[in-house]
Amino acid sequence: MAWREQVAHEKRAAFRDEDYWGRPVPGFGDPAARVLVVGLAPAAHGGNRTGRVFTGDRSGDWLYAALHRAGFANQARSTGRGDGLLLDGAYVTAAVRCAPPANRPTPEERDRCVPFFARELELLTDVRVVVALGGFAYEVVARVLGAVGAPLPSPRPRFAHGLEVTTTRARVLGCYHPSQQNTFTGRLTEPMLDAVFGRAAELASGLRSRP
Question: Which of 25, 137, 158, 209 has a Cα at 20 to 30 A from 79?
Answer without folding.
Answer: 137
